[in-house]
Design the sequence.
């Protein structure tokens, strides 16, 4: 109870948090705020695995099989832009060790393949062209390095070897962070195969921050267990305040491909026991696999993606949705079409970012709440971002109201109704104590975009004037798609 009562106070102090390297604290710093504001991006898995038919390979595939005949990173960035995203995270080197840039540290890279294009450079140029931020994925685990000394699923190396590998990583990270412009995030993976001490994370982190101080660093499976920091895996449902950071330092949490839970724990302990605020970056596959596979015909529907988006971007967390290019070096048209459909369903204007959900900062109340069975069916459940909760009314003509402590400019509501029951409704906004009707409609259904003239208001309410039965809303978001 005590921690919950402090939460609004902590939110009010967010403006006092500053950018910079990791520091203990209960609030996000400036760079973490920037990450939270990015909200929605694209994960791009592409590399030698694309041509292998396998998700993971062990570093023994011949570079000759890497042969994209129509590589087009402009198409990738344009797709992300038109999908309403704000950044991309590109796989630069997966566990197999194959590098998508010409790395002087290895011959296992694009320079020894039939297509020698520096994909990292091309992606950086495309991101700049389309106004996208660039993030990079880099696997700590390199199964090709030093004749495959880390090839096995549970490799064992000496401390001397781990120091040699640290020098190798630092050289490659210098290449990635010094040659391609601003990088907003570094996404490290594969750490679970060695004891965490052998990755020398503190040195890696300091090296990255020296090269790009504003770049946030996260390592997959970021959180350890009380009494056993290397315990693997610790899933979001098992997070507890004060659990140790498995990889320290770090700026955000990863637990691929897990989804955040409600409520999402934000505060985890460094080695000295002090708490650090860590947002969660969710990774979701648009298709069945991370890398493009010729036999993968599955693609998530918009109806499935909507609650995933809501869950993953609520509670100051972010989502990267994976869309893998094919063996031509292009994203499949079906992926492009689905991503555009999703952006439209989320209320984005063509080519503009998916609008931020302003409802999360609101207070919601309704004049009718279902109480005939156990559970919380209150109005708050419609704006908490949790697709497993919903507001349910007890009458057919209820009113639900969102209020803000300070005025917001809104021009859209997006509503997901649990049952298709609403037959008529009105939307009103409040300015200087006066309610004004801005929209009148009929049905709502599984996902409805309600647009009206931009209004600066402290409250918005929906009055259901006719319904077949008492209505129930899974999600309500208020937004202004005109804003960035």
Sequence:
């Amino acid at each position: 109870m005590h921690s919950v009562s402090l939460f609004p106070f902590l939110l009010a102090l967010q403006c006092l948090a500053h950018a910079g390297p990791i520091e203990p604290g209960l609030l996000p710093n400036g760079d973490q705020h920037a990450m939270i504001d990015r909200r929605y991006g694209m994960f791009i898995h592409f590399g030698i695995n694309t041509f292998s038919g396998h998700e993971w390979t062990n570093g023994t595939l011949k570079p000759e099989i890497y042969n994209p005949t129509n590589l087009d990173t402009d198409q990738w960035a344009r797709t992300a832009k038109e999908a309403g995203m704000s950044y991309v995270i590109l796989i630069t080197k997966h566990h197999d060790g194959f590098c998508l840039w010409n790395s002087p540290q290895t011959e296992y890279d694009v320079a020894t393949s039939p297509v020698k294009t520096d994909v990292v450079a091309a992606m950086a140029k495309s991101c700049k062209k389309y106004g996208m931020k660039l993030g990079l994925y880099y696997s700590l685990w390199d199964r090709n390095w030093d004749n495959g000394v880390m090839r096995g699923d549970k490799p064992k190396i000496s401390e001397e070897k781990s120091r040699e590998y640290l020098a190798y990583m630092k050289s490659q990270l210098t290449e990635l962070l010094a040659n391609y412009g601003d990088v907003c995030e570094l996404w490290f993976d594969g750490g679970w195969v060695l004891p965490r001490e052998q990755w020398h994370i503190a040195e890696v982190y300091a090296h990255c921050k020296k090269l790009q101080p504003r770049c946030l660093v996260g390592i997959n499976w970021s959180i350890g267990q009380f009494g056993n920091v290397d315990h693997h895996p610790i899933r979001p449902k098992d997070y507890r305040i004060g659990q140790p950071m498995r990889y320290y330092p770090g700026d955000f949490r990863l637990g691929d491909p897990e989804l955040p839970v409600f409520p999402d724990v934000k505060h985890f302990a460094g080695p000295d026991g002090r708490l650090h605020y860590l947002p969660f970056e969710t990774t979701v596959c648009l298709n069945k696999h991370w890398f493009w596979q010729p036999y993968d015909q599955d693609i998530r529907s918009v109806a499935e993606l909507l609650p995933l988006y809501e869950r993953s971007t609520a509670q100051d967390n972010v989502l990267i949705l994976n869309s893998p290019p094919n063996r031509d070096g292009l994203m499949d048209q079906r992926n492009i079409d689905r991503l555009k459909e999703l952006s439209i369903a989320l209320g984005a204007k063509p080519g503009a970012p998916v609008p931020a959900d302003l409802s999360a900062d609101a207070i919601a109340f309704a004049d009718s709440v279902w109480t005939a069975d156990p559970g919380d069916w209150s109005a708050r459940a419609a704006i908490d971002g949790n697709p497993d909760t919903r507001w349910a009314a007890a009458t057919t003509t209820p009113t639900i109201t969102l209020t803000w402590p300070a005025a917001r400019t809104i021009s859209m509501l997006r509503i997901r109704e649990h049952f298709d029951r609403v037959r008529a409704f009105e939307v009103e906004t409040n300015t200087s104590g006066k309610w004004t009707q801005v929209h009148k409609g009929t049905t709502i259904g599984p996902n409805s975009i309600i647009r009206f003239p931009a209004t600066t208001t402290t409250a918005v309410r929906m009055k259901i004037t006719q319904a077949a039965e008492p209505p129930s809303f899974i999600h309500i978001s208020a937004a202004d798609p005109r804003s960035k």
User: Anything to note?
Assistant: The mean pLDDT is 94. Residues 159-178 form the longest helix (20 residues). The CA atoms of residues 204 and 234 lie 23 Å apart. The longest strand covers residues 448-467.
